[in-house]
Amino acid sequence: MERNDSDNSMAALAARMEAEDYTPAAQVHQPTAEQNRIHGKQFAAVAAEMLASRGRPSVGHGNATGRGASPRHQVVLSQDQDRRLRTYMETHRMSASAVLRAGLQKLLDERRRGGRLR
């Protein structure tokens, strides 16, 4: 594995800490904004990796709708419904969206089988 300057500076810092040398470093390297900037394919790869590691995937493009975005709906809850939803979310460690999707799916599946709305 190839080592870079960052690896070397981290190794040097670790060695100083092990030797209990807490004197300020002579020069702290601060990368410029341009050095921190990423472009083109590198940006796309980083963005894709970040999106892949976050939350539930879209049900849009390549999935359910094929339109590229998940449809959104807004509901208004009573104070009692909101309190009960928040309690359920905390108890089951679920987001409001996940709870509402699961409840809606159960309702729609029951209706498809000819069940009644309770």
What is the helix content? Answer: 40-55%
Got a strand count? 0
Q: What's the alpha carbon Rg, rounded to whole Å?
A: 25 Å
Estimated share of beta-strand residues: under 5%
Largest sheet: none
Low-confidence stretches: none
Chain-averaged pLDDT: 76
**Separation of the first and last Cα atoms:** 62 Å
Structural class: mainly alpha
Secondary-structure element series: HHHHH
Summed up, the helix count is: 5
Shape summary: elongated
What are its keywords?
about 120 residues; mainly alpha; 5 helices; elongated
Account of the protein in words:
The model has no long low-confidence stretch (mean pLDDT 76). The protein is elongated, with a radius of gyration of 25 Å. It has five helices and no strands. The chain has 118 residues and is mainly alpha-helical. The longest helix is centred in the C-terminal third of the chain and has 17 residues, at 96-112. The termini are far apart.
